[in-house]
Amino acid sequence: MRTVWIVLGVLVLLGAASFWYVARRDRARLSSAEDTAAARDARAEQEGHAAGRHGIQGEVWQRDDRASGG
Length: 70
Description:
Blueprint: H1 2-28, H2 33-67
């Protein structure tokens, strides 16, 4: 029974050490100004594509409305 507790204790310590290591590593990785600028550019490009799709859908709807005499 003592062996079981020792194995469980080692597993818990190993899991806690792994969690601590990953948390510390991720905290040390800060985003740079370059990452922020890239995210902003990607968001602007995505919004531009969305606006273009929205405009095309409106044109199709208006064309269909004119064709049906509405």
